[in-house]
Write a structure and sequence with these properties.
CATH architecture: Alpha-Beta Barrel
Order of helices and strands: EEEHEHEHEHEHEEH
Structural class: alpha/beta
Shape: globular
Radius of gyration: 16 Å
Strand content: 25-35%
Helix content: 25-40%
Largest sheet: 8 strands, mixed, barrel
Number of helices: 6
CATH topology: TIM Barrel
CATH class: Alpha Beta
Strand order of the largest sheet: 1-2-4-5-6-7-8-9
Length: about 200
């Protein structure tokens, strides 16, 4: 498995490119809700080169009454100026207010919009205890980015209805560049990462 981190504006002091030598990939928060753009994208320009495996994620806010389409549009437009040809795309959806069918429908609409705009199937980020909520997204072939803060990988039973997990966030307390960040594993090789990102490899 590949090792990486995911970051947002809370980790904006990551400035030393040498620290990246210990990582295989970096996932950056790009947007939130219908209008917000995350300043962690500045990290892309300052330290990431074209050879670094990377990804972008959107933090969904259906709890604010936003439509999935408006949020997906914000996400897609926020990454247009960056080289996202080889980037994995993901939706971080942690809403507890919507019913299971409504949340799944919201996420599916988001996924379909992004797919129509980019040609990429997104990953759904959620805890292993919430994976069951995304049956339609699993059927649409979205990947699962499973949060399970443990040394033990997510099990098949925990990630149903997904067949496998694409990524696994195992801790939010990984020491990197002088601070604590989220640490992740990609369940595959660099070649598989690029294929997942839609690269022609």
């Amino acid at each position: 498995m590949l090792k990486g981190i995911d970051i947002s504006r809370h980790n904006r002091n990551l400035k030393d490119p040498k620290d990246l030598n210990s990582l295989d990939f970096v996932i950056m928060k790009a947007s939130e809700g219908a209008t917000y753009r995350d300043s962690s994208l500045m990290f892309y320009n300052s330290v990431l080169d074209d050879d670094m495996l990377k990804g972008f994620y959107h933090f969904g806010r259906p709890d604010n009454g936003n439509s999935a389409r408006s949020e997906a549009s914000n996400f897609v437009s926020s990454i247009l100026k960056y080289n996202n040809d080889h980037a994995i795309l993901a939706l971080d959806l942690e809403d507890k207010a919507l019913s299971v069918p409504c949340l799944d429908d919201w996420a599916l609409e988001f996924a379909k919009y992004v797919y129509s705009a980019t040609g990429k199937k997104i990953m759904i980020y959620c805890s292993v205890s919430e994976a069951y909520r995304f049956k339609k997204c699993a059927a649409f072939d979205c990947g699962l980015w499973a949060a399970k803060w443990s040394r033990l990988k997510p099990t098949k039973k925990q990630i149903k209805p997904f067949e496998v997990f694409a990524m696994w966030q195992d801790t939010n307390k990984y020491k990197f560049s002088g601070q604590l960040v989220d640490h992740d594993y990609f369940n595959g090789s660099a070649y598989q990462f690029l294929k997942y990102a839609g690269a022609d490899v």
